[in-house]
Amino acid sequence: MKKFITLLFLLIFTGCAINEPLRNRTLNDEKIAIIDTKTNKSIPYSTFIDKIQKHNIILLGEYHEIPNHMAMEVRIFKSLNELQNLDVVFEMLSSDKQAKINEAKAKQILPNELKNAIDWDEKWDYRNYGELVESVFYSNSNLIAGNLSKDEINTIFNGALPIYGKFSTTDEIKKALKTFVATSHKLENDEKNSALLDKFIQVQLYKDRRMADKLVHSKTKSLLIAGQIHASKTVGVYNHILDFDLKKSVVSVMLGDEKSFDLLNAQDAIKAFCDYYIVFK
Prior knowledge:
This protein is an alpha/beta fold.
């Protein structure tokens, strides 16, 4: 488990390079490698789409600050949507906004009105996400709000009952999340901050459970757009899906960058982390 935790942090915290936000970003296939972690070999994009579309649930993990990732998500969504309509679950939208999304769809809101109509949270840069959100919204697929509301987060933080699961709340996962949360919130992982970190962990677990709930109860193929830690097989939504005990197949895809290319040599660890890893060289 220690090796997996180390890899998790190397993968998540090495992707800090920020590109200029752009729509209609062109991706150069010669500078993209799609790695099948079972074999540690690169596969063509068409083969990749053929493989992942066979699964009921597709987890797609990103770095939130890299527009190339959103551009790749647009491309993957459009490729999958050509084959079948999807439920696309967004970490960036809280579940209480679903009614606004449905209303905007019914009113056929124009693209320049969509951001306000669905009450998009400004903490997510819409210059990065706009093309992806609009690609889903104006397709025959469904835009699904998959995260907790601010009121729900406050309730959990102020003392909601802990969440339980056979696969998703093990001591190993909680330990990994505690290290991740401490790092991301710039807190020392010590006795002084232990109670505070435990609250953050519960919020993280509830977020993953909510997204898993949306995915497993979809009546069609479902796609998750979320940060890497949520989409990982080691500590994220994947384990909550297992706790629902549904007979749906799940595949995990991670988006990385040139800094994480060498990490693919840790084959056993990355195979546990995800099924496919896309590197922008």
